[in-house]
Amino acid sequence: GPGRELQLAAFAQVVLENHTITGIRHILILCPPIKTEIWSDGIRQEFRYVDSEQRQLVHDLWEGEDINQHVDSLKTWARYGGVGIIDYDVFQRLDSYYTEDEEPMNIIKTALFNPGPNIVFFDYESIDKKRIPKMYPGLVKITTTRRLVLPELFSYNPLQHINRVMFRDWLMVIGKGSYAQHYPTFQQFSDLVDYHVQKDVYWIKNEGFAVEQSNGRNSYLKSELPTIWRKNIAQPIKNYIQIPEIKRKHAQANRKRLSELPPTYVLYILVVSPKVGQLSVDNLTDPNFKMHIYIGQWDAGSHDGFITCAHHHFVCPNLPVYILTPDPSNECNQVLAVQCYNQFSAHNVEGYLMEYAEEWNEQHPDGARFIITKPEINHLDENGTLRKQARQLAKEGVWIFTELKNDSLPNPPPLGKFADLCRIPFTVNHSSIKKRVIPRVGQVNNWKDGQICFLNQDLLTSWNTSQEPIASNNQLPDNVFNPARSNKIPPIYVLYILVVSPKIGQLSVDKLTDPNFKMNIYIGQWDAGHRGGFITCAHYHFEKPNLPVYIMTSDPSNECNQVVAVQCYNQFSAHNAEAFLMEYAEEWNEQHPDGARFIITKPEIKNLDENGTLRKQARQLAKEGVWIFTELKIDSLPNPPPLGKFAELCQIPFTVDQACIKKRVIPRVGQDNNWKE
Question: pTM of whole model > 0.85?
Answer without folding.
Answer: no
